[in-house]
Amino acid sequence: MPQIPRILVPLDPHDPNTWIEALSYGLDLCDPGETDAHRIILAVPSRAQMKSMTIAGHLGAMFTKALAEGQSVTLPRGVTLLAEAVAQLRTGAEKVVVIAYYADDQALDKVDGLANVEGVVVVPSWADSVSRWTKRWTPQVHGQAAVAPVILIADPKVEKALKTLSRSVNLGPEVLHASDDALAEQTFRILRNKGHKAAPADIRSWAIKNGWKDKAATRLETLAARILLSKAKPSLAKIPEAETRYANWV
After folding, report:
1. Which of 57, 83, 88, 189 would be a feasible disulfide site paired with 42, CB 3.0-4.6 Å?
2. CATH class in words for 6-141
3. Are 70 and 47 in contact (CB under 8 A)?
4. pLDDT tens digits for 142-200?
5. Record: fold of 156-247
């Protein structure tokens, strides 16, 4: 997945100034030279809630009504703003910046699966509501210095196995094909047999970060939890070329 700008604004979403900060970041990301985006999508829990949200006071009654009804409004610099409920969130061919407001990890899993996103600004619902997303991407945090990215998979053998798996399966569909599901299961059985482990949640985040769709990554997490965390080592007798495959994960 492309390394686009991702900015976390961990401020009170009910504070009017928080919207100003988030929108400022969004507009900056739409500047020529930063990205090719000219539209900001405001991802919120529900468009119907727009009129009662804190940001409505800054947008004004006319703009808020338009956004709540699914219409675009024009911002400075020729940028347009469109509000979308997270459940209906989608993008087309146009490049966009997403401001996820009152965000949580589930909403951001949806954002991570969108195409043509040039930048993401996140205002969490509460302090820990986006901890999984933050670990996944190590975003720029408002008011803080940049830090080194978190290593999701510390075991190089496990990461190589996941990279090999990612090249072998079809990452296009939301759900893994049966043969790809079987290949993923074989991969984890080989790793577990050889004594390798990794946190299933981190495997899911790694998968999303590397182009897997949300449902497919969730399935990968389920398989990892069942196999890598099992007490007994699985047999490799029925897995074709298990030893060769393991040796190639270098």
Report:
1. 83
2. alpha beta
3. yes
4. 999 999 999 999 999 999 999 999 999 999 999 999 999 999 999 999 999 999 999 99
5. AhpD-like (1.20.1290)
